[in-house]
UniProtKB/TrEMBL annotation, chain A:
Residues 49-79 are annotated as: Disordered. It comes from Mesobaculum littorinae. This is Uncharacterized protein.
From TrEMBL, chain B:
It catalyses: heme b + (2E,6E)-farnesyl diphosphate + H2O = Fe(II)-heme o + diphosphate. It comes from Mesobaculum littorinae. Belongs to the UbiA prenyltransferase family. Protoheme IX farnesyltransferase subfamily. It is a multi-pass membrane protein. The chain crosses the membrane at residues 31-49, 55-76, 126-144, 151-173, 179-200, 221-242, 248-268, 289-307. Its EC number is 2.5.1.141. It is an enzyme of class 2 (transferase). Pathway: Porphyrin-containing compound metabolism; heme O biosynthesis; heme O from protoheme: step 1/1. It comes from the Bacteria. GO terms for molecular function: protoheme IX farnesyltransferase activity. It is found in: Cell membrane. Carbon 2 of the heme B porphyrin ring is defined according to the Fischer nomenclature. This is Protoheme IX farnesyltransferase. The gene is ctaB.
Length: 79, 313
């Protein structure tokens, strides 16, 4: 007796597989929707340069990044 | 081994292969309906607003957590479920789902629901759901159910947590209103189950579950039903006068509690001969009404929330 796709086993498992597939598809859609909601709540995302500019006082011009001597490479710090 | 013997081995190993509906039945969908409804009400009547998708996801994950604890309860209690007529058709005693499967599904869905609720709402709500699952499975199912006739009283707390979790999901905090919602279900649970125990007599006896009817007798059970029903009245009235209450909740509390107390007094006055003679008609009536009781109260809270939103109260 060959095993073929029409074996009763496949019919018995059909409802289980279809049900599980629908549940998984629903879960993917739900996580996607939740992600959209959470991201929208964060507001517009700024690049690091935009964030520095918006953090600088008004009229101060473009902000410049400064590097503390203690984080400079040793050979630069001794110059 | 030939194909034929493979088929025979397969068929004999899985005489009743589970369908999708059997796994759903493992999650106790009727209990889940109360969990969903009360959690939803707790979430809606809470101050502040929640995005509808977050609210939907939160209630869904609370329901899945409740279902997971139901699966773990069926795994643990499969021996007594097989004895009791009321539960013989459940997936495990009927052989459609294996005990190991139920345990795996229960544990997996427990972890899944707690983590997802934490992501959808907040960590406090997730912690509340985790504690509820622990309380129902370990404290009630594993410990109290088979050891004390007060099993229903303390174990009833597990079913009372969902409105609190819904509230915490919406606000991140706890206050007197969700505690009153908790107390309403907590005080309602004993008379609800004891009314059932009065007319499902042989079931609990056969299973050896120390229900009050078995350990203290039916006369004392009737007295306990009356006592808890009377204690339920001030809780329902306090909820009606709380910030989430209103005219609908107050009217429901007065009518439902008057009816419930009347039913409890009737049960208290009856003896076994009269009850057995009419097929436990009054006991069944009180049990059916108790199902309506919680849905009516939480429905009234929704009505009052709608009236408040519409500026009518």
């Amino acid at each position: 007796m060959p095993i073929n796709p029409t074996h009763p086993m496949h019919a018995r498992r059909l409802s289980r597989n279809v049900g599980l597939g629908l549940v998984l598809a629903f879960f993917v859609a739900l996580v996607f929707a939740l992600t959209v909601v959470k991201v929208q709540r964060l507001g517009p995302i700024e690049s690091p340069e935009q964030a520095l500019q918006s953090a600088a006082p008004a009229g101060a011009g473009p902000a410049e990044t400064t590097v503390s001597p203690d984080v400079m490479p040793a050979e630069d710090a001794t110059r | 081994m030939t194909d034929a013997t493979l088929h025979e081995a397969y068929d004999s190993a899985l005489p009743g292969e589970a369908q999708f509906g059997d796994y759903l039945a493992l999650l106790k969908p009727r209990v889940m309906s109360l969990v969903v409804f009360t959690a939803l009400v707790g979430l809606i009547v809470a101050p502040g607003s929640m995005h509808p998708i977050e609210a939907f996801a939160s209630v869904l994950f609370i329901a899945i957590g409740g279902g997971a604890s139901g699966a773990l309860n069926m795994w643990w209690d499969s021996d007594i479920d097989a004895v009791m007529k009321r539960t013989q058709g459940r997936p495990i005693p009927s052989g459609r789902v294996g005990r190991d499967e139920a345990l795996a599904i229960g544990l997996a869905l427990s972890g899944f629901s707690v983590v997802m609720l934490g992501l959808a709402a907040n960590a406090a709500a997730a912690a509340g759901l985790a504690f509820t699952i622990f309380f129902y499975v370990v404290v009630y199912s594993m410990w109290l159910k088979r050891s004390t006739p007060q099993n229903i009283v303390i174990g009833g707390a597990a079913g009372a947590f969902p409105p609190m979790i819904g509230w915490i999901a919406a606000t991140g905090t706890l206050s007197i209103e969700p505690v009153l919602m908790f107390l309403l279900i907590f005080m309602w649970t004993p008379p609800h189950f004891w009314a059932l125990a009065l007319f499902m007599r042989s079931d609990y006896d056969d299973a050896g579950v120390p229900m009050l009817t078995v350990t203290h007798g039916r006369r004392k059970t009737r007295a306990h039903i009356l006592a808890y029903t009377l204690l339920l009245c001030p809780v329902a009235l306090a909820l009606a006068f709380s910030p989430v209450g209103g005219p609908a909740t107050l009217a429901t509390a007065i009518l439902c509690n008057a009816w419930f107390v009347k039913g409890a007094v009737t049960l208290w006055r009856r003896d076994e001969e009269i009850a057995a003679a009419d097929g436990y008609k009054a006991e069944k009536s009180v049990f059916r009404f108790s199902l309506l009781y919680t849905f009516a109260h939480f429905g009234a809270l929704l009505v009052d929330a709608a009236l408040r939103t519409g500026g009518l109260i």
